[in-house]
Amino acid sequence: MNKPLRAGICLRVAIVALAFAAGSCATKKNAASTVTLKTTTTPGGTTTTTATVAPPKKEGIKKFSDLVGKVKGDEGLFTTYKVDGKYYFEVPDSLISREMLVVTRFVKTPAGLKSFGQQYGGEEVNNQVWKWERHDKQIFVRVPSYSVRADSTSDMYQSVKNSNLDAVLASFDIKAYNKDTTGVLIDVTDMYNGDLAAISLPDNIKKLYKVSALDNSRSYIDTIKSFPINVEVRTLKTFRAAESPTDNTNAALTFELNTSMLLLPKVPMKARLMDARVGYFGQSQTDYGTGAQKSEVTSYIHRWRLEPKDEAAYARGVLVEPKKQIVYYIDPATPKKWVPYLIAGINDWNKAFEAAGFKNAIVGKVAPTYKEDPEFSPEDARYSVIRYFASDVQNAYGPHISDPRSGEILESHVGWYHNVMSLLRNWYLIQTAAVNPNVRNPQFTDEQMGELIRFVSSHEIGHTLGLPHNFGSSYAYKVDSLRSKTFTATHGTAPSIMDYARFNYIAQPGDGVTHLYPQIGEYDLWAVKWGYSYFGGGKTPKKEKELLDVWTTKNAGNPLYYYGRQGTSIDPRLQNEDLGDNAMKASNYGIANLKRILPNLEKWTYQKGEDFDDVQTLYNEVIGQYNRYIGHVTMNVGGMNENFKTYDQTGPVYGFVSKSLQRDAVAFLNQQVFKTPTWLINTAELSKFDNGVVIGRIKAVQVNALGNLLNPSRLARMFDNETKSGALAYTVSDLLTDLRPGIFPAAKPDQFQRNLQRGYIDNLKMFLNVDASQSFPGATSAQLASYGLTPINIALSDIRPMVRAELAKISASLPKGGDALTTAHYTDLRLRIKEALFPTKPVINVVGGTVSRFTNDSSDTQIEY
């Protein structure tokens, strides 16, 4: 929802990228077309399959009529023939050197397969571009590379060609000539029936299940069908394997696969250059033909080809239908009651395309039945499909496949796991039940669940249109605006459905808020306008960029149109599952609602004759939601705001979070986290399911929050801020001073506070007794810092002297006396501090990484939907 939204919701973030893997095969001039596949197993268990060519056969080239006889060919992109159990392609001269996208997907998989992202029928195995070439009496399949380029008019063009040779994937002897069609016949049986990496089982599954080889005796080509712009090949492949998802006695794994070969446009779509200020998936190439005095990286966005039917009307501002509509089909395996909601989520994007000047640009449809269209297949690369998986995975994801020459999106297969409904139900209840009586039930009505499915459908389709997560969008709305019935009824919870702005946990009882989930918003309309608006007149991508820059600069500074990237922990605005412009205020409202929800879980989930599993699940969800709020707040400490800009824009790209906000964040943690959250301990409900683990989990939440706050990267940014901003900075000294009364209150500590105090000393001890230069080989400091992993050399930094001073202050301030347990606790703390300051054990030396105690800023398990 590309997290939980694994999008996407969205959204596996789960980012979508093309992978071009080139296998290799030895070729010999005049060799026969038989491809021999050799499997080698390394001592580590890895299997490698290579293709070689058999020695030349004596029969030579036959007459076309003698080879094919009276067999009628299946006409299409290539005319295909099946003769005496062999399969032939007739490759016409007109398609020599034309590029074709080859996509292999699972059709059926074994039960229990555990390979995340490649488990179910419909999921992609591999995609690659092929180019068929003819040389003398052979046909070659080459795999073009698009990593470097130069325009054909550039002086660098030939040099780039010389250092960018296309790999040869396979070779075939010509078996016959068809004089009537200027086509040549080749035998493709061994290639498709073999274990060629590009169209077979992926290596990760082979390694996972210790696959040794393809078993040809239990494998076959099922069908080969040809259509006007594509050829579809369905195969069944059985592999010898030492492990099995379900039954090792089989010693084998069997899969059905479909390989689509789709002709790419002869003239690629005009590319649109990327802009870091507007979120799009894309691709990059090293370009040597720009005329610059260095090589440059050119990046293009991924988008569908939308061109107006009536360019003149479009230019006048009239909404115009596209020449080719974007169509998504719903998998026939989908439960019928959810189909209308999935389609509605697709069609909701039409209002965004209207901002780009198009009407009826996108449509969701029920897949045709066999009677309506016997040739329709969900695996066919001509069709985009929402695939429904019978899976207990709580997820959904929205990938797409694009033309590597231009970024044109060609097709998409959204993955929809059945149990995403469980995720939606649990989160919607935990986040909104305080103000939403309709969810206070063990199961939602079909209408309630359908509307949530519609929301996820829209999010995932957004990914397939080229839009990544926009984690900065939800920051645009004021916290108090999300308590307004009229505001939320119009705007939902964020300006973009591509954020992980889930459900409205801020609204309080009495506010009257009833619209509680995201919708396609202002940012989404803006992003689609930016990416899909059509510019006629033969403008180059650079000329289009000049026009788009004017639009982007005009909207700069308006939070409604702000794009915040996923994957960084540097900017507290760019977080998943958060709402509003102030994490402390929003989280206080959220906790107030959790306090209302927790005591009612048993009552709201009551089902006669059922056990208490649902109470346990939702109790854990409450703790998880509380933990998210902690993470949202913590990221403000040592945080920096990131606003990508160009030379013609004023103001900083990076600026530190204000001192007052950082101090507010620590005050929140002292009050809501480090002060024992006794409200989480509901004895009546815990007695129904807890066998002694929940108290420990609450303690872990507190200690982990403390460890996250003391992350070395966070402290590195705080030292940096102190140097740059002086008295305006919230310093490490300020942090330690503000934490002390929260961790060591004047009152007698309870068991949670004792646990927390020990955790605090251990965290500080790590800074003294671990020589860890926080760095990662192969990455620059700037690259690491971009994702929040700001490097710091702990041994040489100011951390150690400050920690020593802090430990000394704590030791001097610890009370003496009290009851036996309290006395023992303080005695233990003094010993821990002494060991930290004067270690009797050798210092741990960590090279090239971080210590596990130092956690990242992630406030939640990342689920992509």
TrEMBL record:
Alphabetized InterPro entries for the sequence: DUF5117, DUF5118, EcxA_zinc-bd, MetalloPept_cat_dom_sf, Zn_MMP-like_bac
Start and end residues of each EcxA zinc-binding domain: 442-748
Gene3D superfamilies (UniProt xref): Collagenase (Catalytic Domain)
Pfam families per record: DUF4953, DUF5117, DUF5118
Single GO term (MF): metallopeptidase activity
PROSITE patterns attached to this UniProt entry: PROKAR_LIPOPROTEIN
Protein keywords: Signal
Ranges for domain DUF5117: 122-309
All copies of domain DUF5118, residue ranges: 61-109
Signal peptide: 1-21
CDD domains attached to this UniProt entry: ZnMc_MMP_like_2
Protein name: DUF5117 domain-containing protein
Species this chain originates from: Mucilaginibacter psychrotolerans
